């Protein structure tokens, strides 16, 4: 395949790969790609690719079951949660969550922190629920998350829904509210990037394409006590219990996508040494980039420091034409995916699990060089 000049990029690393900061699908760890490549034509002595195996085969069911067990082990969970792998992206969960845990007219509470929570809210409203936005960051242009100490849910609300990390605006909750109703978290962009305290969470869902796989798989963790709260009369496909009973094999699952998730979970456990080590790496990547941005006069991060995302670093350049030049020059240097979301503009660098510390250091080196060329007052940062 010959790419057009517009889509061609110079390769930065010696292995010919570009530095990938796309917000999703995100970068896949190179060791995972190498393992997938090695067994692409013959998985585990079957003489077939994983892409060819029957979804009813022992091999596929093992991958599904072992993935769930690895998630439990990495997160320090016991048998308090059921784990299933679904299709339909995180967006399908915007419907499945209110369908399973509320009925028309029931009160459900939501926290609005930007683009994706807006979609979740509109989806739930379409089902005729009594939805209330109990906290929102819209008044300050989504530059920080609401103060959890000031969040008050309604008596009788079936659940509180929030998004833990907001990819578009670069904000993140670093803890979860302690409230008397179930908390349901969309963790699509920070799931398996750090250790989390699940004691206040009843349901977690995450599309895999950021930190733990490819587009096509959505991972859902449901506290077992929530199963008794599921509404009756749902279509089978939309009932979480259907997928739990069928062990994520109710219909043909996205086998290859789940396989990639399995390989990444193995990488986190066996290569990185678990979520504690991975969290330290991710924190260092984010700290390096934020510290550099804050040290310059050219780049500006609008997000309040206490709400800054460890996964998605957003920043701007005061001059719009210079910002466009920066985005263009990064692509020519083999650094891709730094343009901000189409609804927000600016720049965005996504630091998912597959992004290496070396990649961040190379980006900062480039940014420092660019800043020296276009700013008269910038602190020099040496990597």
TrEMBL record:
Pfam families: Aminotran_5 (PF00266). Its main location: cytoplasm. Residues 20-363 form the Aminotransferase class V domain. GO terms for cellular component: cytoplasm. The keyword Transferase applies. It is an enzyme of class 2 (transferase). Its EC number is 2.6.1.52. It is found in: Cytoplasm. One of its GO terms (molecular function) is O-phospho-L-serine:2-oxoglutarate aminotransferase activity. Keywords: Amino-acid biosynthesis, Aminotransferase, Cytoplasm, Pyridoxal phosphate, Pyridoxine biosynthesis, Serine biosynthesis, Transferase. GO terms for biological process: L-serine biosynthetic process; pyridoxine biosynthetic process. Its cofactor is pyridoxal 5'-phosphate. It comes from the Bacteria. NCBIfam families: PRK05355.1 (NF003764). Homodimer. Catalyzes the reversible conversion of 3-phosphohydroxypyruvate to phosphoserine and of 3-hydroxy-2-oxo-4-phosphonooxybutanoate to phosphohydroxythreonine. This is Phosphoserine aminotransferase. It comes from Aerosakkonema funiforme FACHB-1375.
